[in-house]
Amino acid sequence: MKLTPTPGQTVGPFFGYALPYPGGEALVDRSHPGAVRLHGTVYDGDGGPVPDALLEIWQPDELGAISQQPGSLHRDGYTFTGWGRAAVDGVGHYSFTTLEPGSTGSEVAPYVLVTIFARGLMDRLFTRAYLPADPATLERDPLLSSVPAERRHTMLATREPDGSLRFDIHFQGEDETVFLTYPNTPQFTGPVD
Predict the structure, then answer these.
(1) Domains contained in the chain, number
(2) CATH number at residue 90
(3) In whole angstroms, what is the distance from residue 94 CA to residue 193 CA?
(4) Does 102 reside within a domain?
(5) Residue 193 lies in a domain
């Protein structure tokens, strides 16, 4: 029997019911001496908040070491795994409690890798939230310096007066976030017969 191709399925909004889990947004406890809040809002192409997105972050620790420890889904309160997951609220806002990542190399500016799942997307999106740093450090980063200068600000978190980091994500429009592709990473294309 020959199967007829069907349109792709979007990645959302069904994930909001099964994927968030208690404590997923807390990579460290708020009482940790190095804890920082990474938060922002996800916006659609019209500038309105997206109320049903889900974000994941991946990052090194404050020394730039990438954790190889298990336990992201069942946190023990002591082990930093460098991974977290949070659903946005009804007005598109998300929040993580984490550590400020260190650099993973001599020319690499510190950043948090952000993955976004949302309704209407055919696949997840990837971007980086670079920490505020001196311009020379950001200019030396191989990936950030490859982005056109007028678009780099869409990948930069800003420091708020309370010390938290704000990183808003825009799917389209004038401030559309720069999204990354990883050509050698297999993408889900559906069942194979």
Answers:
(1) 1
(2) 2.60.130.10
(3) 38
(4) yes
(5) no
83-87 and 54-58 beta bridge pairing: antiparallel
How large is the greatest C-alpha to C-alpha distance in the chain, in angstroms?
Answer: 63
pLDDT digits over 128-174, tens only?
A: 999 998 899 999 999 999 999 999 999 999 999 999 999 999 999 99
Query: Please, are residues 107 and 133 in contact by the beta-carbon 8 Å criterion?
Result: no
Angstrom CA distances, 160 to 52, 92, 146, stand at 25, 19, 27
Cis peptide before 13 (omega within 30 of 0): yes
- Could you tell me if residue 121 is inside a domain? yes
CA angle 177, 179, 182 (to 5 degrees): 170
Cross-strand bridge partners of residue 98: 36
pLDDT tens sequence across 81-121:
999 999 999 999 999 999 999 999 989 999 999 999 988 77
Containing structural domain, residue 140:
15-170
Mapped onto helix, strand or coil, the DSSP state of residue 15 is helix
Dihedral of alpha carbons 70, 74, 76, 79, sign: positive
Q: Is residue 178 part of a domain?
A: no
Q: Which residues 6+ apart lie within 8 Å of 174 measured at CB? A: none
Alpha-carbon gap, residue 148 to 57, rounded angstroms: 24
**DSSP H or E run through 137:** helix 135-140
Torsion of the alpha carbons at 109, 41, 53 and 157, rounded to the nearest 10: 0
Place of tokens 């001599």: 106
- Phi and psi at residue 40, to the nearest 5°: 175, -170
